[in-house]
Design goal:
carboxypeptidase, ten-stranded mixed β-sheet, 2 domains, hydrolase, AB_hydrolase_fold, 15 helices, alpha/beta, Rossmann fold, 497 residues, Peptidase_S10
Length: 497
């Protein structure tokens, strides 16, 4: 019998691989659909009736062809008759590549994940309850899942993924998508707010200007929860020095500071550390090798005092302590690591040696509870049934991070729109997007000091997810309520300087 030709064997193998891939491939979601259910909940002490609409809305290219479809959830109070005066909050999560579940069932939505009062998951995982602090009583809320998050998917398999996966591409297609949604829901007259968490702050900062310039849609407010650097560069001495206040907060939480600092409340400790950082540490690090030996030792001793690390460790690293090393080093003598996104969380590594933790203790904990909750909630309460996988995290790589000017975009949007105000919410124990770098953002967004009365920053005794602890969830939502009240402009007030 003749042997099968090599080329023929390759074709057979390729065909088999394609058949296997098709067998395990996820189905495409519906392109344009919505399911609406009616609900009642006790929010802010009152019985609130609302509709929850979960659906898919297309993304079109310039030729009007559908290239993707985005999954969203929209909560609308049913007894509010005046859409023109009722605020609309548009909510994004981060990543890039993270779905909207964190904000939806962790923060502002009407149904919330059951956690203990400190924000740790409890058995059975995934239980939901009414959120007494939801914002649905004062505003309608849209949660958006960008491409490859939630059920959102690319429909045109031939489309260049660069249309979606990049700082500016992401902003461009989402701005157009929001125009369609606002038009469909008749919300053009409503006061509008963008809220983003983590990378979502990059997204909404860019959207603030893009919505104005390409969609002619103007906002009342932008809320940045645990903001990124927003494209505002901080390298060398600035990058090194700005980490210290976060180090101090995390060390204080774990009682790793000297007794004189440990006995202080965080509200009095952090301003002291911030002043040292700006007035002493930053100039010292700037001098580099020119810093005299005795001054170097004195500065290392002070930095060690505020960080919970040893003076020897500070000097060995020439003051440049990376966050990854800090998470490993702070409690090394106790055989523990601390979390990245929330440094209250503890981890256990295979080896105490090393320069970084084996895993993110906090994220592992959150995924235990948020993943079963969102999947069950969508099917059982929102009545949306699909075989498409809900991507808590979806692939959006390679992501084009070039030309990130989103911080400057936000400043320009504020300059063009006298109504627009900004609020930042940061957790003191967030090691990924720390609170002091968030302050630095606001300083550099407004170097001339012209917009300081239109910018607010709020700090909480929690981590990246500022809403995980019950006291902070309550306070953070109260802060948003106050922000909306402050930025809802009375009828007849002109938009002018």
């Amino acid at each position: 019998m003749l042997k099968q030709p090599i080329l023929g064997r390759k074709l057979v193998l390729l065909l088999c691989l394609l058949l296997v891939e098709q067998a395990y491939a996820q189905p495409d979601p519906p392109i344009d659909t919505v399911i609406t259910t009616k609900h009642t909940g006790v929010i802010n002490g009152s019985n609130i009736t609302y509709n929850a609409s979960i659906g898919m809305q297309p993304v079109w290219n310039e030729d009007g062809k559908v290239i993707a479809t985005l999954n969203y959830t929209y909560y609308e109070r049913t007894d509010s008759k005046d859409k023109a005066s009722r605020p609309l909050i548009i909510s994004f999560n981060g990543g890039p590549g993270s779905a909207a579940l964190w904000m939806e069932i962790g923060y502002t939505g009407p149904r919330i994940l059951t956690l203990d009062d400190e924000g740790y998951p409890v058995q059975p995982y995934g239980e939901m309850k009414d959120n007494p602090y939801s914002l649905v009583d004062i505003a309608d809320i849209l949660y958006v899942n960008p491409v490859n998050t939630g059920y959102s998917r690319i429909i045109d398999k031939k489309v260049d993924k660069n249309v979606f996966f990049g700082v500016n591409a992401d902003i461009k297609y989402l701005a157009a998508w929001l125009n369609t949604f606002v038009t469909r829901m008749d919300r053009w007259q409503s006061p509008k707010y963008l809220i983003g968490e983590s990378y979502g702050t990059t997204r909404v900062s860019g959207l603030a200007l893009a919505l104005q310039e390409s969609q002619w849609m103007y906002l009342n407010g932008v809320i940045l929860v645990s903001p990124t650097d927003l494209g505002l560069k901080r390298e060398g001495p600035v990058e090194i020095a700005l980490r210290l206040p976060y180090f101090a907060a995390a060390a204080w939480y774990h009682k790793a500071l000297a007794s004189d600092l440990q006995q202080k409340d965080l509200d009095s400790l952090l301003p002291e550390v911030e002043a040292f950082t700006l007035n002493e540490l930053l100039p010292a690090v700037t001098k580099g090798g020119a810093l005299p030996v005795e001054e170097r030792k004195q500065m290392a001793a002070k930095m060690a005092h505020y960080s919970g690390l040893s003076e020897k460790t500070i000097l060995q690293n020439s003051f440049d302590i990376s966050t990854w090393f800090f998470w490993k080093e702070l409690l090394r003598d106790r055989g523990l690591t601390i979390g990245r996104l929330d440094s209250r969380y503890l981890g256990i590594d295979e080896k105490d040696a090393g320069d970084s933790p084996d895993y993110n203790a906090e994220l592992t904990s959150w995924l235990h509870s948020f993943t079963p909750a969102i999947n069950h909630y969508i099917r059982s309460e929102l009545n949306y049934k699909t075989d498409v996988k809900y991507n808590v995290f979806g692939s959006v790589y390679p992501w084009d991070s070039k030309d990130d000017h989103t911080g400057n975009n936000l400043q320009q949007a504020m300059a063009q729109n006298p109504y627009l105000q900004v609020m930042v919410q940061s957790g003191y124990f967030d090691g990924a997007c720390d609170y002091f770098n968030a302050k630095y953002n606001l300083w550099q967004l407004d170097p001339a000091g012209k917009f300081q009365n239109r910018m607010t920053i709020k700090g909480y005794r929690t981590g990246h997810m500022v809403y995980m602890r019950k006291p902070d969830l309550k306070q953070a939502t109260e802060d948003i309520r106050a922000f909306i009240q402050k930025t809802t402009v009375a009828n007849g007030v002109p938009a002018k300087y």
